[in-house]
# Entry
Amino acid sequence: MRWSGTGPRTGTLQTPSYNQTSGADSGHDPGGSGTPRLDGGAAWFYSSLGVNGDSNALALLLFMLVIPVFTQFLEPLMAMMSRKHEFEADDFAVEQAGAEPMIRALVKLYRENASTLTPDPLYSAFHDSHPPASVRVANLSAKIVQ
# Structure
């Protein structure tokens, strides 16, 4: 929006049309149709993936399929952060209800879900967002006040 005039009563408020701003603000549409583009006209994206096409839907689909390849190295970091938050949640639960009820609830939960209580440590560190039950129970057992 642009204000033209010198005072509040003498000027007018002018709103630019969508077609005036869309090319400059959203993807630099080379066709001049005024339609925003997700891919910004990046033909290299399609050609590097061996696809002959040019649409927003295709760009979004290809992006969703390709992005896990480039973010796979972040998976252990994200799992580590999630496990840290789980330990913080366990600590809060111990403050509210005590460690013994929490241990019983965890064992019951893992048993009812037919989850293994002792998964492979390396696989768990890389993929699991929650700590293994044995690690959580050991952490909670250390907090039991005697």
